Amino acid sequence: MSLGTILLIVLILMLVGVLPTWPHARSWGYAPSGIVGVILVVVLILFLMGRL
Fold first, then answer.
1. Residues 12-52: pLDDT tens digits?
2. What one-character-per-residue DSSP string does the chain give?
3. Are 13 and 45 spatial neighbours (Cβ–Cβ below 8 Å)?
4. pTM higher than 0.70, yes or no?
5. What is the pLDDT of residue 52?
6. Which residues of 3-28 are buried (b: 16+ CB within 10 A; e: fewer)?
7. pLDDT reading at 8 higher than 70
8. For the chain, which residues make up each domain, given as ranges?
9. What's residue 19's pLDDT?
10. 43 and 52 Cβ atoms separated by less than 8 Å
11. Comparing C-alpha atoms, which of 10, 46, 16 is closest to residue 33?
């Protein structure tokens, strides 16, 4: 496995972990999942361009 693949898997797991459906995260709103989503999109674009 390359470093980019591992990073992509970790970011996807983080995105699932910050969803506001969990009881401890209801008051957070959508900000954490939005931030992780943007990071995931940037890493995915870099991965597809071959820079990661």
1. 887 777 666 667 666 776 677 677 777 778 877 887 888 76
2. --HHHHHHHHHHHHHHHT-TTSGGGGGGTTHHHHHHHHHHHHHHHHHHHT--
3. no
4. no
5. 64
6. ebeebbeebeebbeebeeeeeeeeee
7. yes
8. 3-49
9. 65
10. yes
11. 16
